[in-house]
Amino acid sequence: MSTSWLRIRDEETNGGPAGTLAVCFAPTGAHGSTFASWHGRLPDGMALALVTPPGRGTRVDEEPVVDMAGYADAVAAQLRERAAGRRLVLIGVSLGALLAFEVCRRLAATGLPVARLCVVAGQSPGDFTGPGGEVTLQDARAFATDTGLTDPELLADPEFEEVLLPPVQADLTLAAHYDGRESAPVHVPLRAVWALDDPHVPEAAVRRWREWTTADCTVLSVPGGHYAHQENPAAVLSACLDGLPGTAGPSRRAVLGGGAAVVSGTVLALGTTAATAPKAAAAQPTAAPAAGDAFDGDPTDPVQLAVAMIRQNTSNPGDGAITLPYARMLEEIFRTAGVATEIVPTPKEGNVHFFARVPADGGSAREKPLVLLGHSDVVPATGDTWTREPFTGEIADGRLYGRGALDMKGVNAAFVAALLRHVRQGTRFDRDIVFWSDCDEEQGPYGVRWLLTEHPDKVAAGAVLTEGGWVLDQRDGRTPMIAALTCNDKRSLLLRLEASSYATHTSKPFGGQALIRLGEVLEELGSWRAAIRPNALSRTYFAELAQATADPALAAAVREMLDARTEERRNRAGHEVVRLSDTPELHNALLRTTLAFTSAKAGYYPSIVPGTATAEFRAAFLPGGDDPGRIVAELRALIGSRATLTVVGNPGESEEQALDRLRGYLAVADSSYDTDVFRAWQEAVRRTHPGVRATAGQFEAVTSAVPFREQDVPVYGMYPFTVTRDMLKRMHGTDEYIGVEALRQGTETVYQLLAGLRAGA
C-alpha cells in the first residue's frame, strides 16, 4: 500500500532537480494519468508534481478520502517535506481547483510561499455550501456519463465500473460536504481559466475566483470543453504558466535557425515563459535597451510587450518617426512565431511601416483580411516635466508608465499578444489577420494614406481595428459599465489668431499691447461653447449610457438631452450630462464642436514690446454636426476687430478649399456595425466584461481611418482596457500610463474577438 500523496515527474529532464514544481490536482474521479499529455511540455527548470490521492491509480487498494480538510492537510504536509527551497505553482482542474485552493491556504498559513494558484474549469469556493446528502453509485454513474469522464461502454462493464465509480463517488461526497464560505481568500497571484465550450462550468462561475485572492487575478480562456487540459494541453499550460517569474524556456535565438516548424513546436506550443516577470520592472526599472535590442520575453504577455515597445523611443518630431529599430523588434517576435513579416520603407530614412500576416485556414479565405492597425510613433515627451522616465516602461502601483502607454503601444501590445496566443494554440481563421504598425500617425507625410496610395495592393482590407472607443467604469471606479467600438472620428481644423498693435521700447508700455489683446481674446474663446448637437453615433452611445449607468441623475439627464425638441433644452440637459459625468472632457467632446489651444508666440527681444502676438488652436467637428464655415464665421464675430482669425490649410490651399476638404472628411459615412467583426467584438465584451453594455460610438479624436472609410472599408476603434478620467487626461500628456491588469483584461477581449473569426466558427 502506498502512502505517498505526491509523485514528481520529469525531475531529471533538464539536467537536474527542477527549481519549480507544477503541482497538479486532477478533476473528479481522476488521477495523475489525466495529465499524461503534459509530460515534456513544461518550461526548463520546472517539473510535474502529481497529487495521487488514495483509491485510484497506484493507490487503488486504499480507502478514498471524502473529507476536504483531511485531503488538503495530507497534500500540504507532503509539499512541506518535498518542496523545501522550490518554487510552487498549484494547478487544479475542475474539483481539483478547490483542492489546490485549500492546499494553498494551508501552505500560506505555515509560511511556505506559492508563486501562483491556477484554477481550470472549476467553480469557486463560494459556490459550495455543504453539507450535502449521501452520494450514491448511481449519482457517480450519472456524473461520469454527463461530463464525458470516461467511455460509456466502459461503464457498462461491471468490472470497470467497480474500479471507475468509487473514486467519483468519493470526490462527489467530498464536494457535497465542503462549505467554502468557511474559507478565506489567499494572498497569492491567481490565474482562472475557463474553456470556451465547457457546458458545466460557465465563464461567470470562473470569474467568481476573483473574490478568492487579495493579489492579482487574471481570467483567461482556452479552446475546448470541460476537460480542455487533455484536449488542448498547450493552451492550458500557456494560460497557467505564461509570465511566471523564475522559469525559462528555450532561447528564442537558439531556435531561430530551425525553421518555422521547430519554432512553433518549441517556443509557441509549449507555453514557455519569460525569465523576468513584468512586476520585477516595478521594483528594479532597467535602462532602456539600445535601438534594435531583441525582445527576450513572452510574446503572449501584453505587459512585457508593452514595456519593450515603450523602451523603443519612436518620438515623432512632426515629420515622421524613426521606427526601423521598433520594426526589427516586431519582426523577430513574429518570425520566431513562424509568422511572415514585411518592412516597407518610406522616403524618409529609418521611417518604415511593419506588417505581419497570419494566413487564413488552408490559405483559402472566406473573407477579406482583418487589419489590426496600430501606430508605432508617439508624440514627444518634451516641454512638460515628467516624474517618471518616459521611455523606461516603469511599472509602479499597478500602473505601466511611459510615452505611448495609452496612445497606443498598450493597444499594439494587446493586438500582438492576443494574435500570437492564437498562433501558439494553432488557431485557424476564416480570413487573413494582418498586424500593421504605421509610422506616421501623429504627424508626417508617410502614414496610412501614403501607403495605400503608393502600395494599393499591399493590404486589401475587409475591415480594420484601430484605436478608438473606451471602456468606462461606474462611479465606484471598479465595476465596468460601458464599452464603445467607435465607427467614425471627429475631424479638426487648425486656426491661427493674431493680435497686433505697435512695437516700442519697454520703458514706455501702453494700453492695448498685442500680448494683452491676445490674452483677452483667448480668455473669451476659452469660455465659448458650441451648441450641443449629438450626431447619430453619439446618440446611440448616450442612449446605451443611460441604460448602463448606476447613477439615476446622469441617466435622467441623458434621456432629457436625447428627447429635447429645442436647442435651449438640449443645451441645458447636455450641460448636466457633462457635469455629472466621471469623464466630463470625453463626454463633452462627443456632444459638440470643441476648441483646444495648442501654442502661443510673441516677442523677440527683452527690451521690446512686440507689435504682434499669435496663438494657434484646433476646432474639432463631429460628422453630421456643425458646418466648419459657420463656426469660423461665429468665432470671427465673437472676436470682432481685436484680432485676426485665419484658417491654416495645406500649402497653397485657400480658406474655402481647406473648409471644403474638411467637409468632405466629415461627410464620409460611419462604418456599418452590421458586420461579423462588430458582432465578434460584442460577443468578446460579453465574455470578458459580463453585464457591460457594448455599443457603437463616436470617437472624439482623429485616427488613420479616413482613407479606409473613403473606400467603404469598415474601420472600428477600440482601446480595449478600462480607463479613468486621470488616465484620459494624461494621453499626450505627462506621466502617461495604463493599468497593468486592465491591459491583460483588454488583451483577453481582443483574443475573444479574434476567436469569433475562427474557421468554422
Keywords:
single chain, about 750 residues, alpha/beta, eight-stranded mixed sheet, seven-stranded mixed sheet, 24 strands, about 20% strand
Summarize the structure.
With 761 residues, this protein is α/β, with parallel strands linked by helices. The chain starts with 5 loop residues before the first strand and ends in a 6-residue tail after the last helix.
Helix and strand arrangement:
Elements: E1 6-9, E2 20-25, E3 46-51, H1 68-82, E4 87-93, H2 95-109, E5 116-120, H3 137-147, H4 152-155, H5 158-176, E6 190-195, H6 203-207, E7 217-222, H7 228-231, H8 233-241, H9 252-256, H10 259-268, H11 280-283, H12 302-311, H13 324-336, E8 340-345, E9 352-358, E10 370-375, E11 395-396, E12 399-401, H14 405-424, E13 433-438, H15 448-454, E14 463-473, E15 480-489, E16 491-500, E17 504-505, H16 514-527, H17 536-548, H18 552-563, H19 567-580, H20 584-589, E18 594-602, E19 608-609, E20 612-621, H21 628-639, E21 644-648, H22 655-666, H23 676-688, E22 693-699, H24 706-709, E23 715-723, H25 725-729, E24 737-739, H26 740-755
Parallel strand pairs: 2-3, 2-4, 4-5, 5-6, 6-7, 10-13, 10-14, 14-23, 15-22
Antiparallel strand pairs: 1-3, 8-9, 9-13, 11-12, 12-24, 14-15, 16-20, 16-21, 17-19, 18-20
